[in-house]
C-alpha cells in the first residue's frame, strides 16, 4: 500500500484512476483506492441527501479513510441530527472542520454574505467551504479527495471524469456514473436512513439560506442559490481559488 504523505499527484495518477474505474463497481473502486493510495485519501461529506452512500461504501471497504465534514454553522437542524445518526450507525472516522470565523462573527463583520450577490456568495464560499477544506487536506496530509459527486446531479457535472486534477489535489468520484435509480436501490438494499428533509420536498441539500424545497416544474439546480448556481465553490475548476484545492 502506498501511504506517502504530501505526495503531489501526477497526471499519471489521473490516468490510472480513470482507466481502472471503467471496469470496476463502486465498492471495488473504493477498495482499490485504499489499496493503491492509502493515507493519501480523504472523503468529504456534507451529510446531505445522498451522503449515506459514500459513507457506507467507505465504512465497509476503507474504514480507515478520514471523513471531512465541513460544518458551516448554517446547516439545517435536521442535517446535524442526520449526521449524528450516520456517524453512530456507520462508525466512520469523521473529522469536523469549521470556518475560522463563527456565523455570528461573520455576520457582524460582513453582514449576510449570501444576500450580497455573486461577490458575497464567493466570499461566503471561501470562508465557509474552501478554506476549511484546504486546511483539512493540509492537516491530514492528504492530496487525494474522494467525493460522491454524480454526473446526473447537475449540468455542471455532466462532463466530469472519474478523476481530475484540481491544483495540487487529485479529486476522485467513485459513484460519478450512478443513475438516480441506482442511488435509490443502494439505500433500499442496505437499509440506509434517508435525510429527513427529503420527505419535505428537498432535492438537494446545503445551508439553510441557500437551499429550498422543489416547486412544481423546477429542477434540483434551481433550488440552490436562487437558481443562480449549483456549486458552492468546492467543486469548481482548478482556477476558481488560490488554495490547494
UniProtKB/TrEMBL annotation:
A Pfam family annotated for this UniProt entry: PAPS_reduct
GO cellular component, one term: cytoplasm
Biological-process GO terms, alphabetical: hydrogen sulfide biosynthetic process; sulfate assimilation, phosphoadenylyl sulfate reduction by phosphoadenylyl-sulfate reductase (thioredoxin)
Keywords attached to this entry: Cytoplasm, Oxidoreductase
Oxidoreductase found in the keyword field: yes
GO molecular function: phosphoadenylyl-sulfate reductase (thioredoxin) activity
Active site: 232
InterPro entries given in the database record: PAPS/APS_Rdtase, PAPS_reduct_dom, Rossmann-like_a/b/a_fold
Cellular location(s): Cytoplasm
Catalytic activity: [thioredoxin]-disulfide + sulfite + adenosine 3',5'-bisphosphate + 2 H(+) = [thioredoxin]-dithiol + 3'-phosphoadenylyl sulfate
Phosphoadenosine phosphosulphate reductase domain mapped to chain residues: 41-213
CDD domains, per the entry: PAPS_reductase (cd23945)
SUPFAM superfamilies: Adenine nucleotide alpha hydrolases-like
Pathway per the UniProt entry: Sulfur metabolism; hydrogen sulfide biosynthesis; sulfite from sulfate: step 3/3
E.C. numbers: 1.8.4.8
Function: Catalyzes the formation of sulfite from phosphoadenosine 5'-phosphosulfate (PAPS) using thioredoxin as an electron donor.
Family designation: Belongs to the PAPS reductase family. CysH subfamily.
Protein name per the record: Phosphoadenosine 5'-phosphosulfate reductase
Organism: Oceaniferula spumae
Amino acid at each position: 500500500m502506498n501511504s506517502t504523505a504530501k505526495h503531489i499527484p501526477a497526471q499519471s495518477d489521473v490516468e490510472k484512476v480513470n482507466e481502472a474505474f471503467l471496469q470496476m463497481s463502486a465498492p471495488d473502486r473504493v477498495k482499490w483506492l485504499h489499496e493503491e493510495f492509502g493515507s493519501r485519501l480523504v472523503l468529504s461529506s456534507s451529510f446531505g441527501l445522498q451522503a449515506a452512500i459514500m459513507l457506507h461504501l467507505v465504512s465497509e471497504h476503507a474504514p480507515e479513510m478520514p471523513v471531512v465534514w465541513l460544518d458551516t454553522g448554517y446547516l439545517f437542524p435536521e442535517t446535524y441530527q442526520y449526521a449524528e445518526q450516520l456517524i453512530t450507525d456507520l462508525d466512520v472516522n469523521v473529522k469536523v472542520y469549521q470556518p475560522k470565523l463563527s456565523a455570528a462573527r461573520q455576520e457582524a463583520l460582513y453582514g449576510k454574505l449570501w444576500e450580497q450577490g455573486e461577490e458575497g456568495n464567493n466570499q461566503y464560499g471561501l470562508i465557509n467551504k474552501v478554506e476549511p477544506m484546504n486546511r483539512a487536506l493540509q492537516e491530514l496530509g492528504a492530496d487525494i479527495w474522494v467525493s460522491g459527486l454524480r454526473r446526473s446531479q447537475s449540468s455542471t457535472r455532466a462532463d466530469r471524469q472519474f478523476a481530475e486534477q484540481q491544483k495540487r489535489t487529485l479529486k476522485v468520484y467513485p459513484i460519478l456514473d450512478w443513475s438516480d435509480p441506482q442511488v435509490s436501490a443502494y439505500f433500499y438494499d442496505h437499509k440506509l436512513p434517508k435525510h429527513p428533509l427529503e420527505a419535505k420536498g428537498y432535492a438537494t441539500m446545503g445551508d439553510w439560506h441557500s437551499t429550498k424545497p422543489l416547486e412544481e416544474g423546477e429542477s434540483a439546480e434551481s433550488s440552490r442559490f436562487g437558481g443562480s448556481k449549483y456549486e458552492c465553490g468546492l467543486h469548481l475548476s482548478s482556477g476558481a481559488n488560490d488554495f490547494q484545492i
